[in-house]
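Hi, here's the filled form for the chain we discussed.

Project: internal
Contact: R.S.
Residues: 307
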Amino acid sequence: IGTAKYVGISLKKLIKDCGGLIKGGKHLELYGAETYFKNDEVMNYLVSVPWSKVKANEVILAWEMNGEPLPKIHGYPLRVVVLGYIGARSVKWLYRVKAIEDPSLAPVQSKEYLYFNQQVGKHNQRPTDGIQIQEMPVSSAIMSPWTKQVVIHNGKIRCKGWAYSGGGRWPERVELSADGGFSWYAVPNKNLSEKHKWTWRTWEFDLPCDVEGWIEIVCRCWDNSLNTQPLNIRAAWNWGLHVTSSAHRISVYSINKTRALTNQRLAKFEHTGAPLAPLTWPEEFQTQSWEEYKTYWKENDPRDVDD
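And the returned structure, exactly as it came back:
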């Protein structure tokens, strides 16, 4: 997902100035000068985009990026920018554009970046079983905290992340859950960056969380067409691993310092200089005196029953 500012020319205008498409041309094959090696074959990088995408003025040939000539790594002297499509279609180091009747037969287009049914795998897949991936689906991710992090909080966990939708759509709502997806909180609009076509929105939110221990934080996005992310990864799994767009899940260890005993214990950790991590190590100080231990059993029934 890029947010650079490009300067260039619409491929539609360029084709018009060259006299239009040849008869039967329905796709534009784009040739990049980089060397592409796959299955013992060496070739240039080739993909194609449909003419309908070009007609919508959503394909640009760019020579400038963020007010400067294209950096070499970004395709100098000329690259393609296909708005709202996966990055694989935005060819760098462009040297040729060819009108063709069908999608490109090059492996990047015909054998890679395909979306398969969940029952398709290495044992039974055929390239024609996969949908050629063009527009990106709704997606989002939690960037902070990170998975397996120990989070000390005051009843709310500070979360940050991003959300995106392809094809010129934009994230309209981001929701978070601290209990694996049973209850959801919407991120307030003021906590989302401005909405624009063709790019993501960043967000941040103080997620309510009372419980302690291992929890699962889940994030999902809704775009302006009311598309959302499936909660179950199995519902979005793709054998090729592309666009596995299920709701993002992370596991963190919650320590809620609004609880009196937890707050006291944290103060003792700080006072003694004992490390909190890793959680599986024994404490470096006593957590309960023998007097406290014996008093407890005098005031409570022992862990047994009378005959």
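Let me know if anything looks off before we file it.
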